[in-house]
Design brief:
This protein has about 160 residues and is mainly alpha-helical. The chain contains six helices and two strands, in the order ββαααααα. It has a two-stranded antiparallel sheet with strand order 1-2.
């Protein structure tokens, strides 16, 4: 094709058909690297806190107590017969996971600029490892929720 006397070429990139494509195979090729990125994020997070892994339990408990006092006692928000601390914690846990995952994933490229510019690896691993490392916190807090559900004699429905 010629535009204004200059030759230009057009490259058309089409997706491969089927569930498995070359891109997913290259991601699987580096799956151990993803494991080490997640492990690195977990180790760094707990080494940098004074309370360590206890912070994972203290943070949702503190938020639960604040929200229970504010909305449960002062405003008397109805919960449909569910104890208010459980009502609050069951909503806080997914929200805190989503919020922290979004924040960490957004900042992950800036935080790992030196790594990205030096070697090749699938770049999707950087935000994905930030999201997966937050899943550990979520699971620990979910155990806390399970213990509280047993304490309040509330079945999973």
């Amino acid at each position: 094709m010629q535009i204004n006397g200059e030759h230009t070429s057009t490259t058309i990139i089409e997706p491969t058909s089927g569930l498995i494509n070359l891109r997913s195979l290259s991601i699987w090729k580096y799956h151990e690297l993803l494991y080490f990125f997640v492990w690195r994020d977990i180790k760094v997070r707990y080494k940098q806190t004074f309370l360590g892994i206890a912070w994972v339990v203290i943070q949702p408990l503190a938020n639960m107590l604040i929200f229970s006092g504010l909305f449960g006692v002062l405003l008397n928000v109805p919960t449909g017969g569910i104890p208010y601390p459980l009502f609050v914690l069951s909503g806080l846990l997914p929200w805190q996971y989503f919020s922290s995952s979004l924040t960490k994933a957004a900042n992950s490229f800036v935080d790992n600029t030196n790594l990205i510019t030096k070697i090749y690896f699938p770049r999707i691993f950087i935000p994905f490892s930030a999201v997966l490392s937050g899943l550990v916190d979520f699971l620990i807090a979910a155990i806390l929720l399970s213990i509280l559900m047993i304490t309040f004699h509330l079945p999973i429905t």
